[in-house]
Structure formats: C-alpha cells, structure tokens
C-alpha cells in the first residue's frame, strides 16, 4: 500500500518503472508525486533559460544520489533542492521509493508528454521486434555497469541510460518485411536496415527535448566501429562517443547470446571470447577490457540475479 492514494491525483502517467502524478498546481508552481521501482532512475538536468527552484522530499524507500564526485544514500525523511539545477544529478531507487517533487515553474505536462512519447516508441519497438523489450533492458543494465566502472561523469551516465534503452528505436521506421524476415537479408535490405541508427536519431530529435537530442547522436553511432569500418558515417576511435562505444560492445554481446528465428545464440563464454577477439578492431579496447572485467556480474545477471 502506497503512502499516497491514487484518488488524490489530478493526472497520472506511467513509464518503465516510474509513475508520475500531478497533485497540485497554481501560480506556476507544481507538486508532483513520483514512485520508482527498484533499479529505476530519475534525473535532474540543467537546461538553458531555466531558473526554477526544484525540491523533492522522500516519503518512503531509498535513493542513491550520484554526482560526479560521490554516491550518497538518501532515505525517507531526507530532501534535496537546487535553484536552479547547475549539474546533472541522477537518482536510482534501491527499493520501491516514493517522493514528492516541487518545482516553481510548470513542467508536468511537458514531462508527461515526453513519458507518453517514449512509451509509445518503446511499445512500437516491442510490437515490431519480438526480442527487443528484454534486449533493450539488458543493454541498459550492462551499459550502466560499464559506464560506472569507467567512472563516466553524471551527464554521460544520464545520456548512456537513455541511449542504451532506446538504441534500436529507429527500427520502428524499418519495413516489417525486412525487420521480421526469417532469413538472411539481401544487400539492398541490409542497406535499409542500417538506416535504423539515423532513423533513431531523427525520432529523438523530433521530441525537441535537449537531452534526447544529445542522446540521438549516441544512438546514431552505436554501430560505428573502432577501426572506422562501421556505419552510418565510418567514424573511428575517439570520433565515436564513449557512450556509443559501450553500447556497441554490450549490444553485440546480447545479440550473440540471443536465440533468433534463423539462428541459435552463442553461449555467454563464446560471446565473451568473440568480443575479446575483436578488441581494437570492432570495439574500443578500454570498453572491451572493462566489459570482460565485469564478466562474473554479467553472468550472474544472465542467471536472473539483480545487478
């Protein structure tokens, strides 16, 4: 039973482990209830021309507040505020967590529309590509593991969190007869399939949300190769964002170990070896080394354990 009753909300939207509900609004100020499931994240990000005061108070549960310098555990009864937000801050629920968020500038309908748009994109991918929903969640989990191990800053971690989940969002614009073809694609069909990276960038940029526009650049790069032989632009080495380099490795690993209609997946051990064999050619060497170092954690997740 939650602390807040659903009947007290003016409007509610849901998105992958997150519930947001408008409780009260007036004179530009909004009071918004949040409920996060374990492992779900919520971020506060700086934006140009934003001068609002932002405050939240934890009703129940536990959050990990991650900044560039530290990780702080926050429990029920604790609060956080900024006026305005100056740095990227990401909060991850360690258990079912409820908090009240207060902002001096209205954000809920912008926020809720964003959530609805993203949910529609996620549902569209699930409907088109049967394995994608679990695949995207695993990519996010593995990517966050690698990003934390590489000590990425909070801005990078925020972008990685979103880009890893939505890396294949452009597949919604790939014709079904190509996306769901049970046999090998022809050269022309493969050329169309490869466009999903740029389609993904376009979709995210169409939201006009600054952080999603940044995420779109990463999504477009997740099939680039360290040796410059990838697509769509043939970028190489450090021309590729570190976030995209991370997604490239974990996406390949998951694709290798997933059974498809036309082929049986490799074992995890075989996939790890394949990743290692392509260190410095397909994949960024540092990302490969970090991914291999996390092998036991990843194998445990494959067995159903929580990261």
From TrEMBL:
EC category: hydrolase
HD-GYP domain residues: 110-307
InterPro entries: HD/PDEase_dom, HD_GYP_dom, RmlC-like_jellyroll, RmlC_Cupin_sf
E.C. no: 3.1.4.-
Highest taxon listed in the record's lineage: Bacteria
Keyword vocabulary terms for this entry: Hydrolase
SMART domains the record matches: HDc (SM00471)
Coiled coil: none
CDD domains: HDc
Pfam family, any one: HD_5
Entry's transmembrane regions: none
GO molecular function, one term: hydrolase activity
Name recorded for this polypeptide: HD-GYP domain-containing protein
């Amino acid at each position: 039973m939650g602390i807040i009753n659903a009947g007290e909300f003016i409007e509610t939207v849901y998105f992958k482990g997150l519930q947001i509900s408008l409780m009260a609004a007036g004179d530009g100020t909004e009071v918004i209830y949040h409920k996060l499931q374990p492992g779900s994240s919520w971020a506060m990000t700086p934006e140009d021309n934003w001068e609002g005061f932002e405050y939240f108070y934890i009703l129940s549960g536990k959050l990990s507040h991650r900044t560039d310098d530290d990780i702080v555990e926050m429990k029920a009864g604790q609060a956080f505020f900024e006026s305005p937000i100056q740095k990227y801050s990401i909060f991850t629920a360690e258990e079912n967590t409820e908090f009240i968020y207060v902002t001096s500038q209205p954000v809920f309908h912008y926020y809720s529309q964003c959530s609805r748009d993203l949910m529609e994109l996620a549902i569209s991918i699930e409907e088109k590509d049967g394995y994608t929903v679990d695949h995207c969640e695993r990519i996010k989990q593995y990517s966050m593991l690698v990003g934390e191990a590489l000590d990425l800053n909070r801005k990078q971690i925020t972008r990685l969190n979103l880009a890893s989940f939505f890396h294949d969002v452009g597949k919604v614009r790939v014709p079904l007869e190509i996306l769901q073809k049970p046999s090998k694609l022809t050269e022309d069909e493969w050329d169309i399939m490869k466009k999903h990276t740029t389609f993904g960038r376009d979709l995210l940029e169409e939201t006009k949300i600054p952080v999603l526009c940044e995420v779109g650049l990463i999504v477009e790069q997740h099939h680039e190769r360290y040796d410059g032989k990838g697509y769509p632009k043939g970028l190489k080495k450090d021309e590729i964002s570190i976030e995209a380099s991370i997604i490239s490795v974990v996406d390949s690993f998951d694709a290798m170990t997933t059974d498809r209609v036309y082929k049986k997946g490799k074992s995890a051990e075989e996939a790890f070896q394949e990743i290692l064999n392509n260190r410095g050619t397909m994949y960024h060497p540092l990302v490969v080394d970090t991914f291999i170092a996390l092998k036991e954690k990843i194998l445990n997740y494959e067995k159903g354990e929580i990261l």
